[in-house]
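agent> fetching stored inputs for the S-adenosylmethionine docking request
agent> found them:
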Amino acid sequence: MLRHNLLFDPVKRPEITKDIEFDRYVEIHKNQTGPTSADAVESIKRQFYEAGAHASVENLDKIWGFVSPKVEENNGLAEFIRDYRGAESQYFFPWLINVFRSPATALEISYGAGPDLNGEWDEGILDTDDPIVPFVYDDPAFVYNRERQLYIADLAISVMEERAERDRSIRPKIVDYGAGRMAWMRRHGLLEMCYHYMYLGTSDIYAFDKDQTIKPEDLFIPRSLQDLGIKYKYGDFTSQLTNPDCRDADLIILGGVACYIPSDVFYGKIVPAIYGLLNEDGIFFFDLQTSTPCYRHSMDILDWQNINLPEDPVVVIDSVEKARKHLWDHGIKFSAEYKIDTFNKIPSAVMITMQKL
Ligand SMILES: C[S@@+](CC[C@H](N)C(=O)[O-])C[C@H]1O[C@@H](n2cnc3c(N)ncnc32)[C@H](O)[C@@H]1O
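agent> prediction call returned; pasting tokens
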């Protein structure tokens, strides 16, 4: 079952209802739970070792050792691998490992980058005829990821430019919570831009992530983190909400992170704390994924940990508005703008930009 085949004709905002996608999702998935037959596991294993004929057996054993228990216990995952010809790919299984271990690294595949069966990082997957290529290109989660990174990059550029124009002596400050691999900077030509502002002595970027498999010093070669004005630290970002380094921020980014946080904690604790960290008219970006088949699929089949998946963009906007008005009554005043994922036929997320008033 290919995830992009689940899409329907484009829907306009008022036509979106939770059941068009949800009923179909349930229909398709109802036979996908339970263990995988021994024959199916064997066939995936055979294909995987054949595809890896050029890779080291030690590496293949390591990958298979990690993936096989998940395949054995989850027939949906076996079907997913079969439908995408994942076992024939040089990249699919290493990608799966990252889905389980390092979601931000797994997202790099949306730019055609990831580790191969030998564990070597390849930036040129899109230039190959590997079976993973259509998936990388079309999957709604990846289509949306590219849109989100571009959106954040634009936001960051406008904040840096606007602040630099206003007063060169004040360094614009950007805080990225759950920063992952900072794709918004790396994938959208911002490296030189940040270097430029750093050179002018006007940019400071604080990044935090709890994923210690990400090695920030490797991300921005040929520039060093210091050159770019980036301070990257490991840890739970919720313990950084009183960190003086994050105070007076011009832009605070939570890209692909809010869905992991229960909404009462998010609006009750995180948003008020972020309000306290922002500059006078600072901007807060976050996004919320919606309950599209692609994300439901990720949760069930890929074991994607997610606790807060609103049904559709209209529900997202209504609930953010409700929370915003409630915060307003408590003196926490933001204006808000919403951008629905426009690249997918069924919008898979809403991007929310709040500006402190
Ligand atoms: C879906 S990824 C998105 C990464 C990045 N913001 C992007 O847009 O590519 C979510 C990231 O948030 C991080 N994360 C989630 N909850 C976190 C927390 N409480 N503290 C720090 N990092 C967190 C995860 O480790 C992961 O790297």
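agent> quick read of the result: The chain is about 45% helix and 15% strand.
agent> awaiting further instructions
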